[in-house]
Fold these 4 entries.
Entry 1:
Amino acid sequence: MRKTAILFSVAALLLFAANLYAAEEKEEAQKEPAGLFKNQTHCPVMGGEIDSTVYTDMQGQRVYHCCPMCSDKLKADPDKYFKKTAEQGILFENIQTVCPVSGEKVNDSVFVDYDGRRVYFCCDMCIAGFAKKPNEYLLKLDKAATVNEEPEEQPGEGESHKMHMH
């Protein structure tokens, strides 16, 4: 009887720990709740009103500036400006077309808000992968934007979705 009680207690403790880990992983990926943001109206670098013809496309986001000189400062320390604007409740325009994890087309209903960036995915499974290495996948969004300027690959080519099936 005593062994059964101990085994039950250990099993309950393990289950609790697993649930706590899963909740922390999801919380890490979705730092800001969706729907609490406003559109960008001021430059994150200098604070002046934005000029819609002056912007930097970075990590799947289009960041508008007040002048062309602000782009280099954003590129030098993007996390600083993304976090600053997230604290102010500002969300940049998302220009992302591919999932940073799989490379597949994004699903507009599958996303997380991460340090001032709304990041879209093709499916819920990719969110967990992103949560493990967010900075690596954010950099992939910059590469994807460059690659998208070239002709698209034919189905069956490339590395899309080797990690899971839809």
Note: Helices lie at 2-29, 70-76, 78-87, 124-132, 134-147.
Entry 2:
Amino acid sequence: MNGWYWALGGVLLIGLALVPLGLPGLWLMLAAGVGYKLLVSATGLSWLAIAIVGGLAVVAEVLEFTLSVKYTRKFGGSRRAGWGALIGGLIGAIMGVPVPIVGSVIGAFAGSFLGALVAEYSLARDGRVAGRSAWGALLGRVAATAVKTALGAAIATILLVGAWPR
């Protein structure tokens, strides 16, 4: 096995570790696949595999933004609470960045919860309904992180199998 394959594997591992932290690990993995394809001419990695990986990355990003909204609504929250969860998650992730390693994750979880809570309470003025929809937003954010990480593992597998030296 050549050194380029091991380098690809190392970058994919780093990218996969970045995904649950809310950092752009999927895009790092996609860039590594494209770079490997361009640099290693004898690779079996196809442009079709890279396109599939790109599609999976887009799906993962869309799911990350929509699952907290869907769970908020599933737990009885209004459309406003769904938007509160989405906006709160984004703001929380950005605000949490100064905290090393896990700040963006904690910020995104707390932001989704608080965003849904405040938005629903401002509409319904019922603490139980607001709390239930905020809990749904938090569960949705956890589910989104898990799904995005699983898709990251699939992306890494596709790239490693496709790049396997023949």
Note: Residues 6 and 160 are 10 Å apart (CA to CA).
Entry 3:
Amino acid sequence: MTEALIDLLRAVEAVKYGEFELSHGGTSDYYVDKYLFETDPDCLDAIAAAFADRVDDETLAGVALGAVPLAAATSVAAGSPYVIVRKQAKEYGTGNQIEGTFEEGEEVVVLEDIATTGQSAVDAVEALQEAGAVVERVLVVVDREEGATENLAEAGVELESLLTASDLLDEQPDT
């Protein structure tokens, strides 16, 4: 599955080379464009199938905005409900930070697109735990291998990735 997924991400040119600023403020000589793989039906289907193989009876949680398509597609593939976790509670309507429902004590697995430091996943885990969920795992499409595993471990959560940056960059083109 790993090679097939790498081929799909490369086919949609999701990996870019150059100089890029990352969401945590650092820079990188490559960028994984989640919107290219999340909006391609073949990529989205493959990711959802791979995630569905790794979940049991857990409710899924997609971190807004990037992981919402992943959570929705995986929900259909796995037959599992999902919730959406916002970065912060909205200031209108219901004022929710978590959209959707789960029971207190229910197991929830967080889905994420790309993990660099893992901070957005840690924030989502904390919000879910404060709302009564039991969260032990985060599933991510690509782990950039820049501290997310360690940061999530400090929060008591395991990071599982479909791919790592090493997998994707193994045969990088000349830049």
Note: The chain has a mean pLDDT of 93.
Entry 4:
Amino acid sequence: MKSLKNHISLIIALFTVLASVQIYVAVDRTIAAYESHLKNDYSVIVVANKAFTPKEFTTMSSMIERSEPISTAQVLERLKGEMSEKNLALLKLTLPKFYRIYLNRFPTPNEINNLQKKLQKNTAIERVEGFSQTHDTVYKLMLLFKDVVQVFSIAIAAVTSLLILKEMRLWQFQHAERMNIMALFGAPVWLRSAVLFRLAIVDAIIATLILCFSFFIIDYYGILTLPLKEIGINVQLFNFVNDALRSLAISLGISIALTFTIVMFHSEEE
């Protein structure tokens, strides 16, 4: 019963580390998907005193994906009853040209400033509106959330690794008699500690399977994906090939490394 308790403790500890890493990966993917979503909605408004072709805009900056003119017909339609046809025709000729520019990625605040400067170098462009204040707020909130999750994941991984080290130390005490007998018969360190490595590897595999099953449940019932889809974000939180293999590698790496640390520490004491 005590041995089973130790196994469960190690599996939970490893699962916690894997879950914290996967949550960070999922948040990073969600933010990337949200950036793509914002990129499609975000645009820069350009006011010019002459007509521009889409190709002329794309040659100004590699960030510009496409552009489209903004029609002034609605404005002129509203003024029809207030102005004569002659004045309306004159106003139509003197009105500046408005363009909406779409970018090939969601820009950083510095990239927006640089883009505005590049566009304004053209003497025919009177004004460039990048909505930098709103953009800066959204972008900084996204980065702050990502940084908080990263720090949180690192802290959990560090604390949990200490707990795993403690559990493995208890394993060593439980198998100390067997290991000492094997040492008397001249067994090498790796052979004496084989049982510790075997237990660590088995628990690492079990922890990875539990993680995969947990995210399968989350994905199957749409616990997180459905709320994200409601705001236009379609993202795969867990890849059952790449993420599972990475989680298994992390779990095995932590287990074997900490077991090796315990074994070497014990051999030095001898």
Note: Strands lie at 44-48, 64-70, 97-103, 125-129.
